[in-house]
Amino acid sequence: MRHASRAVVFYLTPDFSRLSDPLVWLAAFGQAFFSLGVGTGIMLTYGSYLGGGRLVRDALVIAAADLLVALLAGFMVFPIVFSGGAVVLLGLPSALSYTALRVELFGARLLDLKDFAFGTVGMVVAGVILSVSAGWFFDTRAVLEHLRLGPAWRRAFLALVRYFIPLALSANLVARLAGRG
Q: Structural domain boundaries of the chain?
């Protein structure tokens, strides 16, 4: 493929200035929730079938495998786009999302609203609800016993689940909603 090396350089060159944008973080959270299934409860269901205290190890293996597949997919997608395949990659979603009927609600395309409501907002709200429930309403002693963490890791886990995750997700969601209007 022509331009493949240029595509790989583009793909692997980070733009650290984008890390200060809360909308980038919200998109990253949404992608992680969608990709790993946390927002839809798949990981909870999967975790309920595990035995023998393998939850932490299995979660790390799943996250690492997900990351590896995403990285490999980037090595395939970016060279196609840089080789002039953008028409295919941009045309297909356009053809699937937008029809001649132009179905709109409140001045926005219906499928865009659905994606925003369920894919962006819904996943993050589900993550906040799950984190608050796990940190404040579930039997945390039983959860921590099942995770088999040491005392320092237990405190860190509770601080993350009770405070950091809900606050980070909520702040990013507010920023996204403010940016939408």
A: 22-180
